[in-house]
Amino acid sequence: MIEAALFDFDGTLVDTTELIYHSMRHAVREVMGLEPPREVLLANVGQPLPRQMELLVETVADGRPDRERLADRLLEVYVRDNTANHDALIREFPGVVGALSRLQDAGMKVAVVTSKSRASVEMALRAIPSLGGVTDVFVTMEDTAEHKPHPAPLLKGLELLGGVPPERAVYVGDSPHDVAAAHAARMRCIAVSWGAFSEDVLKEAGPEYLVPDVGSAAEVILKLREARQAGTGRIA
Predict the structure, then answer these.
(1) How far is it, in rounded angstroms, from Cα 132 to Cα 104?
(2) Which pLDDT does position 236 carry in this prediction?
(3) CA torsion angle for 127, 130, 145, 180 (degrees, to 10)?
(4) Measured CA distances, 131 to 45, 75, 98, 145, 230 (Å)
(5) Which of 8, 10, 81, 174 is catalytic?
(6) Are 227 and 234 in contact (CB under 8 A)?
(7) Rounded mean pLDDT of 111-130?
(8) What is the C-alpha separation between 229 and 108, in angstroms, rounded?
(9) Region of poorest pLDDT, from 14-23, 88-97, 176-185, 224-233
(10) What distance in Å separates the CA atoms of residue 211 and residue 59, rounded to the nearest whole number?
(11) 108 alpha carbon, distance to own chain's centre
């Protein structure tokens, strides 16, 4: 039986895509004087910010020898801009609190597993406090040595929920990194397409289900739970 639902945070439970894009664009423009396409700036959303900056520099710095310094500087400028514009640009996705409440009311455990720092998550929860009331545990960047697409953060979430087996859990995310992490953890994955990545990119990653929003993801999870209870393991 499905016992636990794990969720990514940025682009899945909270609408931060424009906030992230704004800060990425500002940082690359200020530090490097460049204006990369939107898809380049958002390509690695879902991984920890320091790693995103390293990958971004590898993509746009054209072999410059000072890449490590550039990544550090990009991170510094990004964080400053993101903090300054956070509350103005973060948005609450419709129906998320109700969807997570439905899962909890059905007896399921709910966790957030994110590559964000704990301080960033706490800042988001101050802006959208209702999310804290429908989540049992949070796993943030500081909680594991390895990060998505490595399975360690998802497995940490299952541990904090009381040792739920991976086959009894589902992970919901909006990026190919989320899909890869779920598969590595041997969990089912539901991808939602209202985040930073297109349906085509998500389909290529190979989630078991692709839905438009978290409300639809909750419907799939509840049907999976009912199917398991009935012994079929299938949903209509």
Answers:
(1) 13
(2) 43
(3) -110
(4) 21, 27, 10, 26, 31
(5) 8
(6) yes
(7) 96
(8) 13
(9) 224-233
(10) 30
(11) 20
pLDDT at 146 over 50: yes
Two tokens at 145?
A: 């040595």
Q: How far apart are the C-alpha atoms of 29 and 21, rounded to whole Å?
A: 12
Q: What is the reported pLDDT for 228?
A: 63
Q: Of the candidates 84, 94, 108, which has an alpha carbon nearest to the alpha carbon of residue 15?
A: 94
The beta strands (E) that lie in 47-187 are given as: 91-92, 109-113, 137-139, 169-173
- For 165, other C-beta atoms within 10 Å of its C-beta total 11
AA identity, residue 14? V
Q: What does the pLDDT look like over 186-218, one tens digit per residue?
A: 999 999 999 999 999 999 999 999 999 999 999
Q: 162-172, pLDDT tens digit by residue? A: 999 999 999 99
Q: What are the backbone angles phi and psi of residue 67, rounded to the nearest 5°?
A: -65, -40
Establish whether 8 is a catalytic residue.
Answer: yes
* % of the chain at pLDDT higher than 90: 92
